[in-house]
Amino acid sequence: MAKIAKIAKNGITIAPDIKGHERIVEWFVERRDAVDKLPEEYVIARDDYYANYKTHHKQGSKINKYINHEYIPVVGGLVEAAKVGRDEPDVFYKMLVKDTDKHGSSLYGNTHDISCEMLFVRTDQKQLYRNVFKVRLRVQQECYDLMHHLRSDEPEADANARLFLLTTRTNSYDMAYEYELDNVRREAIRVSKKRYEGKKREERATPIWANHFKINAVYSDAYRLNKRDGKNTWHVDHIFPLHFDDRKGRTGSGLHIHQNLQIIPREVNLKKSNRFIG
């Protein structure tokens, strides 16, 4: 590993945890010959992307271009098997090493065009994605100017006095404001196999005509109830299970739509399990 660490300074980045893969990593770093003899669970992939370190704009990644335009592959991160050339649904590969091609990269001011070669290994870890919304609040100019004045010109003033002044200056009218969607990006999160399979089951059971606003409203109500009564007190249950087996040996599946959702106590949901109770 000392030899790997020495070479890693020359454009090579190694994941923090490569336990069990040291021999393959050393081969990738030092020789990289006889790729056809690489064990089946490993794969090498190339990628090209563009980054501007002044504006933080990043794009062009072949590996993760479907996540969002501001994502660059990171060592230790997970990617779907299809993105490294493997036809293995619901399987993820972990990046062990990234070798930035010094001859294929160029730096112009704050702009960096990068080519790299990466070593991946198959893993049993799972990953989902969630949307992260960046919202901007816009208020009346005079209210913004007043708050800015209080914060910048009177930092030593008592907080209660500033609040009182702000209230007396604005309580004669309703402050106009609006929310503006500034940016949406997808964030990768690692999850358990059970949660991953449950989410995929929901996606397969969601028809194109489903009302996502009403579905989210049900989950929001459950979240508020759990905030009030304690974590995991209430569950969102599918009235007709997404997958069920009855006592007569029949099987079936319900839909992930708001009409098929209900909020019930945790103990009731665990007792109900995947049965349909008419």
Name the features.
single chain, 278 residues, alpha+beta, 3 domains, seven-stranded antiparallel beta sheet, two-stranded antiparallel sheet, 7 helices, disordered N terminus
The tally of domains stands at: 3
Number of helices: 7
Morphology:
flat
Strand content: 25-35%
Q: Indicate the low-confidence ranges by residue numbers.
A: 1-7, 66-70
Relative helix content: 25-40%
Average pLDDT number: 79
| Class by SSE composition | alpha+beta
Give the topology string: H per helix, E per strand.
HEHEEEEEEEHHEHHEEEEH
What is the distance, rounded to the nearest whole angstrom, between the alpha carbons of the first and last residues?
A: 62 Å
- How large is the radius of gyration? 26 Å
What profile does the largest beta sheet have?
A: 7 strands, antiparallel
